[in-house]
Structures are given as structure tokens and as C-alpha cells.
Amino acid sequence: xxxxxxxxxxxxxxxxxxxxxxxxxxxxxxxxxxxxxxxxxxxxxxxxxxxxxxxxxxxxxxxxxxxxxxxxxxxxxxxxxxxxxxxxxxxxxxxxxxxxxxxxxxxxxxxxxxxxxxxxxxxxxxxxxxxxxxxxxxxxxxxxxxxxxxxxxxxxxxxxxxxxxxxxxxxxxxxxxxxxxxxxxxxxxxxxxxxxxxxxxxxxxxxxxxxxxxxxxxxxxxxxxxxxxxxxxxxxxxxxxxxxxxxxxxxxxxxxxxxxxxxxxxxxxxxxxxxxxxxxxxxxxxxxxxxxxxxxxxxxxxxxxxxxxxxxxxxxxxxxxxxxxxxxxxxxxxxxxxxxxxxxxxxxxxxxxxxxxxxxxxxxxxxxxxxxxxxxxxxxxxxxxxxxxxxxxxxxxxxxxxxxx
Length: 405
Ligand SMILES: Cc1cc2nc3c(=O)[nH]c(=O)nc-3n(C[C@H](O)[C@H](O)[C@H](O)COP(=O)(O)OP(=O)(O)OC[C@H]3O[C@@H](n4cnc5c(N)ncnc54)[C@H](O)[C@@H]3O)c2cc1C
Description:
This protein is 33% helix and 26% strand. It has helices spanning 15-27, 44-52, 63-66, 74-83, 86-95, 116-128, 174-179, 199-202, 237-245, 247-252, 268-280, 297-306, 320-331, 387-402, and strands spanning 5-11, 33-36, 57-58, 100-102, 107-110, 132-134, 139-145, 148-153, 157-165, 184-190, 192-196, 208-216, 222-229, 233-235, 256-262, 333-342, 348-353, 358-359, 364-365, 371-373. Bound molecules: flavin-adenine dinucleotide.
């Protein structure tokens, strides 16, 4: 590899690195662009993302709604997503030969249903634009002298007018960024599921309830939506949202806390009335035989037991007090959480470069001119559903349009 002066060097051969390199090269034909990748694999997270299908973005096309999915970066991403958001991403992929489809929950995937089509497309575009790629070549330092960047790598040094850091959540490059004056927000896990030791709950593995409200005791953390019972505890959108918004608080509690689930998402009085109404039309069956709407029968039986009511009792023997006890359990069901588990191997971390140090019109560092940063290296993270890739595409695209030739 030559030691000539590049127009653009990109640190990281992942999602944001490739997207930035390609868009810059499409803008400035014949520019000299180099991607430096520490590992011997390119786009490795894209390959395994979305269960091998790559959930590229989310159908939610209004940036004001879209930003609500970022526990960190919400305010900062409004402007950028208005310039290059979900609609623009879908159009970009379609213009480059990758039609995108939406699933009923809003997640969007390539119609091919495989992340390989995105990888092939990116690699072909790099070839078409003569973008150079150097693998197994970790960037270990960089500094700016006489209007150019000197980039020190394990294989050799390189020189560039502009430098883009797209190193994801790998913290080994943070020392270099700190030396330049950047502030690092320490990393913590975001997007994880909750471990529960209660065996009788785990036996209900596979059951999902749609309209719950979940709160974490002694905090303001609250989320609504489906809860899924797993063989290790609790998962599903309501739990993942709590884990993302509560990333720092839950870490400070060493992931040991109490969660309260309201299985019907209604107040206790309303649930009491709903149970009374329900029982009026249930004849004189045994309690376990008449699960309420939206509560699967195995969970209903379990909740009766948690309320210390014999599920075999006939409805006619259910006193007002017992109905209130049942409503209390359904609306305020508390579990001890002891630890966390990774959600579908999707490791997402909160933390990275402090957002106040980035100009979000260009994604340029406010501290070092001609230094740009995109993707997970920034203290931005989204919930599951395509929001993390969208943040990477958005930042990378804006950088590609901001850098001069
Ligand atoms: C299993 C899994 C599934 C996921 N699924 C989805 C999904 O479906 N939808 C979604 O929106 N998000 C998903 N995510 C999150 C998404 O993959 C990331 O948010 C996204 O890849 C971030 O892009 P990035 O460019 O910042 O980092 P990455 O794609 O991680 O790329 C960073 C690259 O930089 C390289 N690097 C690091 N340090 C150096 C260095 N010093 N020198 C040279 N190279 C370096 C790394 O080796 C890596 O290749 C998933 C994550 C995982 C782990």
C-alpha cells in the first residue's frame, strides 16, 4: 500500500465506514479513499445483523417520531434524520439495486432476506470506485500536522486530508480521541433481557402478553408493550425498552432490582371491574378454565396461584375480596431481577464520544477540524428495530456530503 496522500481515510470497515466511503466516492469520482479495518473481516456486524437478514432501518418515516427510539442521541439526531432518514435510506438501497420491504412491526429488510446482498453491493461499489481497503491493519494512533492527518497503523503509516472514525463500539481507539481533547462517556450495555430465578415463571417460557406496563421499583423507568417470558426470565419490546432507557440506572443497581408488571396495562380498579364483568358470563366453571382476554391460560392459572387463590375454585365461590386480590396481582406483579442476558447476540453499548463535542450539521468534531465521527463510536444508541443502523447510515451519509474534495 502506498504512502501517498489520501483525500479520505476511514477507520473501520463496518456499516458506517463503508457507507461513508461509497457516498463520498460517488460525489467525488476519482478521489483517493482508504478504509482501514483492524480485523480480517469486513462488515461483520452487517453479516450477522437481524438474524442474518439485516434490519436496515424502520418504516417510521417521520423524524420526530423516529428519534423517540434513541435513549441517547434523540435531540441530536432530529436534524440529521430530517436530511437522511428512513425514506432516504430505502431509496438509496433501491437505487443501488437492493429493494427493501417492511414487516408488520415496522422493521425493514432487503427483499432478498439476507444481509449478504448488502455486503455484495457495498463491496462491488468499492471496487467500482477504486476504494482501497486494508484489513488486519488496526489504527493505533493519529495526529494532525501541516494540514494533514498522519494515521499510524499496525502495518504502516498513512496520510490523509480528512479522517473519519467509524470504529463502532471498540474502545481501544478512545485513548487517541481523548488525547485530542475528546470526552468519552463510559460504555455500559444497552438492549438486554432480564434474568429471573423464579422457576415457576420460567416454566411459562414462550408466553407473550401484548399490552403490559412495566416499571422498575425505586426508579422512574416505565415502558409499555409486549412482554415475552423466556426460559431465563423476561424479554420482549417492553423489557428491551426498559433496558435501553435504563442502561445507566440498571448498571448502577448491578442489574439487581424489582420489576413490576401490570399484565393488562390498566389500573387495579378497572381490572377488578373487568374481572367481575368477565365472571358474570363465565357460568360456574373453575377459575383456571376462564382466562381473561389477552392473558394466556397458563399465565392466568399461574397468576391465580400467585394471588394465593386455588385455580380449581368455582367462579361462584369467588368473593369480592378474592377478585380484588387477583386484580392486585394482575396489576402489580413483582419479580426480582438478578442479572441480564444478551438479546439475540445483539450487543449494543451506550457510551462513546460526548455528543456536545460533535457538530451535527456535518458530524465533524468541534475539537479537531477535519476529523469526523459516525456510528456507534458516538454516544448514540437506539432500541431494536433498525434504529442503530439508521444512525450509522445517517451520520456516514452526512459526513460524505460535508467533506470538501
Ligand atoms: C448480532 C448483532 C445484530 C445486530 N442487528 C442489528 C439490526 O438488525 N439492525 C440494527 O439497526 N442494528 C443491529 N445491530 C447493531 C449494528 O450492527 C451497529 O449499530 C452497527 O453495526 C454500527 O455500525 P458502526 O459502523 O458504528 O460499527 P461496526 O459496524 O461495528 O464497524 C466498526 C468496525 O471498525 C473496526 N475497528 C474498530 N477499531 C478499529 C481500529 N482501531 N482500526 C481499524 N478498524 C477498527 C471494527 O473491527 C469493525 O469492523 C446489531 C448488532 C449485533 C452485534
